Each structure stands twice: as structure tokens, then as C-alpha cells.
Amino acid sequence: MSIGRSWWHEILLLAACVGLAAILGVASGYLSGAFLLAGAIYIGWHLLQMLRYHVWMRDGEHYSMPIPLGVWKAAIDGVVELRQSERLREKRLLQMLESFQASTNALPDATLVVDESGTIEWINQSATRLLGISRHDVSRVQVTGIFASPRFDAYLKSNNYRTPIKLTSPVDNGVLLELRVAPFGENKRLLQLRDISRLEQLETIRQDFVANVSHEMRTPLTVIRGYLESMSDAGESMADWQPVLEQMDRQSARLQQIVEDLLLLSRVEQGETTGMEEVVDVPGLLDVLLTEARLLSGERAHRISLQADEKLLLKGHASELRSLFSNLVFNAIAYTPPRGVIEIRWFMEGGSAVFSVLDTGIGIEQQHIPRLTERFYRVDEGRSRKSGGTGLGLAIVKHVLNSHDGRLVIESRYGSGSTFICRFPSSHVSKSGGA
Ligand code: ADP
């Protein structure tokens, strides 16, 4: 290990002290006295330097800096270097913080950091605009106080943030926000609120357009079907036209069914679900459906069975639920060969009410399953048309389930059959003879 320059200087200083003491001692005849005095001066000087060093380190005052001589020069240089690199690091951190703040402020979305108790720790610029909170009193504000919405409180407490929720801006009723929450660190959460008013507006325009077009088509179609019926009943004079009239009637009936399905879909989508708190007698509804299913099966003689918990009722919308159940049962008939088995079940499982339809039909290849609930998605266009399908059945099923907070699971094996399972949460369950 090499000793530094400063230490060489220190050794030289000490040697000079010893030399001077020796010369003075020899000249005066008090050799030991001269050494004692030199030692005392040397130690005293170092003690004084130590004191200055202490004050300099504590207060940072330049005047108290030790005289940069010998080992003290090494000590001073070390401290100065350390302070410089510290300052450089601070500057870099500050620059990073500034650019982070500048970038989050440039975000059009409101961003908030809240601690475990729900107190806001940090917000960006957009949050002040979208939520009307000032950056100064941010540390005193509870995030639940901003929206004053039980839905927001419940969502934040749920710890399940997979699906974002929509909220109205607390400063402007016309602004709709989409909230996403990401937990991080120790019980901290990052809240991101996006203005989706424009998207929502476009979605409403699309829904209105489909609903209006469907509505406008309803009357002309009824008139056309009426005339077709009259022409079919005209007897001899129209005999040659019978095949054409039958074809026209079949097609217009299909068109009418599409229009009705589109209108139902629009109603469910737009949340026009008045009577949602109605208690629906599902077992009774399924009894009627069973009779209809057997009639529809006709000569195909499917072996249809129903197993229903007679006491299990559901809070919801009766006609929508009827559409949901019938779409699944009629699909099972349409896609199961003659004499196939169809099992309809209605029961409680793990706190949820479950409606399931099992069939031993043609089944569905796995790659189609995620897309089945899209409007007009068909696995086999020709087969669907032949069975009179509109391609909207499963889209209706999905939307009705959504409006009842339910979930759809499709299990299928190509060539051997399918099971469609609908689960309704306990909040929608109602038992006859009890709540
Ligand atoms: P469609 O009116 O064509 O039946 P749906 O939305 O009800 O429209 O169903 C979408 C597609 O899903 C159907 O075209 C069909 O290919 C498939 N599908 C639905 N139910 C069944 C089933 N039980 N078995 C086999 N395939 C089915």
C-alpha cells in the first residue's frame, strides 16, 4: 500500500519539528525540555486543527476549514470530493424528478398516488383540472371525499381492479371518467382517470343509430309481411307464385327476427332495464320454455330434460332473462342432431345461481369460443342460416348477463357437444318463502 503525498508531508513536518527541537536543545543545553516543548506544540496544533475540522464539518463554514497541511490536506480533499459528488448526485436526481414531473404533467389523464388509508400523496396537473383539487392541500385530502360515490368507495376497497369503472367528474357532470387502479409498493395505489366523454358519445351515437334503423324497419316489414300473407291467401289467382311467396315470407320473417333482436340488444345495452328488482319465477319460466323446446324439436325428437330448483328465484328483468334462457335452449336444439340429449339445469352452487344447458350436439372448435358472443359471429354461416339463426343470440345472452352482473362460461368439444353455463351472483338470488 502506498502512502499518499500528504502523509509524506506530515512525516517531513514531524521530522522538521524533531530536527528543530534537537538544534534548540543542543544550543540551549536543555535537550529533553526542547523535545517536550516541540511535542506539545505539535500535538496542540493538531488538536486545534481537529477543532476547526469539527466546526467546518458541522457548520460548513469556510473560515473554520483546517489549514491544508500534512494529513489535514488529505482529509480536506476527501471531504471536498465527497461533497462535490453528493452535489452532482442531488442535481441528477433533481433533473430526473423534474423530467418525471414534466412528463406526468403532460399526460392528459389524471394521475394520483394514494396511501393505504386513502389519503392522497401526489397528483399530476391534469388531476387538478379533472377533479378540481389543488396541489397545495393535496396531502390533507381523502380520495373518497373527491367523488363522494359509494360505488367508488366499494371499488377502491374491493382490491379487484381488473375491470375499470366509469364515474362522473366531480367538477363537471358532462365529463365521464374511466378509473383504473394499480396497486404498488407497500399498500399504495396509483389511480388513473381518463376522460372518455368523447368515446362514450360516439358509442351512444352508434347505439342510437342501430336502434333507430331497427325501429324504422319494423313498420315497413310488418306491412310487407301483411301483404305477403294476403297474397298467399288469394287462392287460385296466385297459385304460380306460391313458391316465391313462401321464400319471400321466410326471408322477411328472418329480417323481422333480426330487427327484433337488434332492438332487444339496444335496450339491454342502453341499460333500459326498468323492473330490474322484479323477482322472476325462473322455474315457472323454464317449464314453459321446456314445452316450447319440445314443440320446436318436433320430429327431431331431442331428449330434452329439465332439472330446476323450484325455490330458486332471481331478481332481474323477466323478458330479458326469458330471451337469455330461450336463446341457449333453442341454440342447443338447432345445433344438436335428431334424438340428441339436451339437459337444462337451474340450481345453486357456491353462493351463485346457475343456469346451464348441456347438449350432445356438433360442438364448437376451441378457436371460435372467445368470439361467439360477438354480434353476427357464426362458426358456420350456412348452418346458422338454415337453422334460422340471426347471429345475435349469444350477443344478447352476454349483454343480459352483464346487466344482471352474471358471467358466461362455454365448454365445448368439437363433435361431442357443448355446455353453456350462466352464473348469477348471490346479490341477484331470491329464494321463494324467504329473502
Ligand atoms: P345464431 O343465430 O347463428 O345461432 P348465436 O349468437 O346464437 O347465433 O350463436 C353464434 C354461433 O355459435 C352459432 O352460429 C353457432 O355456430 C355457435 N353455437 C351456438 N350455440 C351452439 C351450440 N349449442 N352448439 C354448437 N354451436 C353453437
UniProtKB/TrEMBL annotation:
Its EC number is 2.7.13.3. Residues 212-428 form the Histidine kinase domain. GO terms for cellular component: plasma membrane. GO terms for molecular function: ATP binding; phosphoprotein phosphatase activity; phosphorelay sensor kinase activity. PANTHER family: PHOSPHATE REGULON SENSOR PROTEIN PHOR (PTHR45453:SF1). This is Phosphate regulon sensor protein PhoR. It comes from the Bacteria. Keywords: ATP-binding, Cell membrane, Kinase, Membrane, Nucleotide-binding, Phosphate transport, Phosphoprotein, Transferase, Transmembrane, Transmembrane helix, Transport, Two-component regulatory system. The keyword Transport applies. The lineage of its organism: Bacteria, Pseudomonadati, Pseudomonadota, Gammaproteobacteria, sulfur-oxidizing symbionts. Member of the two-component regulatory system PhoR/PhoB involved in the phosphate regulon genes expression. PhoR may function as a membrane-associated protein kinase that phosphorylates PhoB in response to environmental signals. GO terms for biological process: cellular response to phosphate starvation; phosphate ion transport; regulation of DNA-templated transcription. SUPFAM superfamilies: ATPase domain of HSP90 chaperone/DNA topoisomerase II/histidine kinase, Homodimeric domain of signal transducing histidine kinase, PYP-like sensor domain (PAS domain). The chain crosses the membrane at residues 7-24. It is found in: Cell membrane. Residues 89-138 form the PAS domain. It catalyses: ATP + protein L-histidine = ADP + protein N-phospho-L-histidine. It is an enzyme of class 2 (transferase). Signal peptide: none annotated.
